[in-house]
Design goal:
With 480 residues, this protein is an alpha/beta fold. Helix content is 33%, strand content 17%. The protein is globular. It starts with 5 loop residues before the first helix and ends in an 8-residue tail after the last helix.
Length: 480
């Protein structure tokens, strides 16, 4: 490494954000890019470890120590070349990836880990700013045609890889714009949509065709795609939300998190939502049920819409603030996470069971809750028990259910082709990502189950390798 003692001289400088008093007034990105000097200084903290566990921590196998060293040396073009070799969407992972690699950083054993995510973002933004990213125009094509259904991170990564291999790729998206969950499921303040548009323009120039407003399995038969294309890859995500089937669920004012987030993003884009369908937190008491990242995103949106107060509750216990013996290094630990949305206000509480919704005139007004605790049974499995005399109520005008997702939507492709599913309801594939139908592949959350963006990219890349191998007999594409 350029400075073998860098980690002894420089302390970790995490990402910086716009002031809370400013950012809650708009939906502009909260993240602030670091200076070139700060990036070089932080990159110097990367040690010359004998075994860089960050590689195994990263699902796409980023060359992290190598490009950290190049950033420290000011060799940005070479750093970008290495980053570009493993990551199709670094400008997005650099903003919203939970950075599994950082929790596997060797320096993290007894110090703060390297700011790998921010270093990654600095490389890709330097590349865009200095015109290092130019469309790769292929002079020769294989003559093979591939359809990719779904334009989220898995679909985009798969399409990009297959296009690089020389195949003709057409991406089908049922929404009116490309990006899938990146476009409508991630709030603008975390990922401005111009970032997605910038990448899509490059992919279009490189030869990928995008078709929006096409719901495969409804508007267009999946069987027809299989007849017209040499291979088809479905990357439609895991969009069936988990519901809360308790008394009062039929009251108005109770909505799924994804419906709330999608509508918010469409409103920012300028789309008018009819009054009878509008989900708006202005001057309302908002209760978000679910303590994960999606719930946190809803908290941030509610703040920006002018909620009078926001409460987020979670049925599981409050996570530890540091590693426990259950999650030793280099495992990705279950830790208490506070997002930028939590910094902006509101209350959070854990070990809360929602028992009933109550209301008046057909509208939700209260949550009836109780505290719970988890104890182990004779087999060592955790069992939830309600704490005696712990009932209480939360007054609310708007409830957002952020309880995660169950499995892919069955209506459409899965039902039409009668695809085999695994025990969790996800599309079942062989090791080469092919489904029970010849020539039909699956990747991303649709195959793996609800997961992280970096895993979706890894899935798309691996599926592309096996699709290329299926069509050509061998593949030049990396399996990672």
């Amino acid at each position: 490494m350029g400075d073998p003692k860098g980690f002894l001289k420089v302390k970790r400088q995490p990402g910086t954000y716009r002031l809370v008093c400013e950012r809650i007034k708009d939906f502009a990105e909260v993240n602030l890019l670091r200076t070139e000097f700060q990036n070089k200084e932080q990159a110097s903290r990367c040690m010359d470890c004998g075994t860089p566990f960050c590689h195994s921590g990263c699902p796409i196998g980023n060359y992290i120590p190598e490009w950290n060293d190049l950033v420290f040396a000011g060799q940005w073009e070479k750093a970008f070349s290495l980053l570009n070799a493993t990551n199709n969407l670094p400008e997005i992972t650099g903003r919203i990836c939970p950075a599994l690699c950082e929790y596997a950083c060797v320096l993290g054993i007894n110090d703060d880990p390297v700011t790998i995510r921010e270093n990654e973002l600095s490389i890709i933004e330097y590349a865009f700013k200095n015109d290092l990213i130019q469309p790769r125009i292929l002079s020769k094509r294989t003559g093979k045609k591939i359809a990719v259904v779904g334009s989220g991170p898995a679909g985009l990564a798969c399409a990009d890889q297959l296009n690089c291999a020389g195949h003709k790729v057409v991406v089908f998206e049922r929404d009116d714009a490309i990006g899938g969950i990146l476009r409508y499921g991630i709030p603008e303040f975390k990922l401005e949509k111009k970032i997605i548009d910038r990448r899509i323009k490059i992919l279009q120039k490189e030869g990928i065709k995008f078709k929006t407003n096409v719901d495969v399995g409804a508007d267009l038969s999946a069987r027809k795609l299989l007849r017209e294309f040499d291979a088809v890859c479905i990357a439609c995500g895991s969009r069936q939300p988990r519901d809360l089937h308790i008394e009062g669920r039929n009251l108005s004012g109770i909505h799924f998190a994804m419906d709330y987030l999608i509508q918010s993003n469409k409103r920012i884009k300028g789309e008018r939502i009819p009054d009878d369908l509008l989900i708006d937190a202005k001057d309302k008491r908002v209760a978000v049920i679910g303590g994960g990242d999606t719930g946190a995103d809803c908290v941030g949106v509610a703040h920006r819409q002018g909620a009078s107060c926001v409460t987020q509750i979670e049925i599981m216990p409050k996570p530890a603030s540091c590693r426990t013996k259950d999650y030793p290094w280099p495992k990705y630990p279950l830790l208490l996470k506070s997002s930028t949305s939590h910094e902006e206000g509101g209350q959070r509480d854990w070990s809360i069971l929602t028992k009933k919704f109550t209301g008046s005139s057909g509208k939700v007004k209260k949550l009836s809750c109780a505290r719970v605790e988890f104890k182990k049974d004779a087999a060592g499995c955790p069992v939830m028990q309600e704490v005696r005399d712990s009932e209480f109520e939360i007054e609310t005008d708007l409830v957002i259910l952020a309880l995660g997702f169950l499995h892919p939507e069955k209506k459409g492709i899965i039902e039409e082709l009668r695809l085999d599913l695994d025990q969790k309801g996800n599309v079942k594939t062989s090791d080469n990502f092919m489904t029970s139908n010849e020539g039909l592949f699956a990747c991303g959350d649709m195959r793996r189950g609800q997961s992280l963006i970096v895993w979706a990219i890894a899935e798309g890349r691996r599926a592309a390798h096996y699709i290329d191998k299926y069509l050509m007999g061998d593949s030049i594409l990396p399996v990672l």
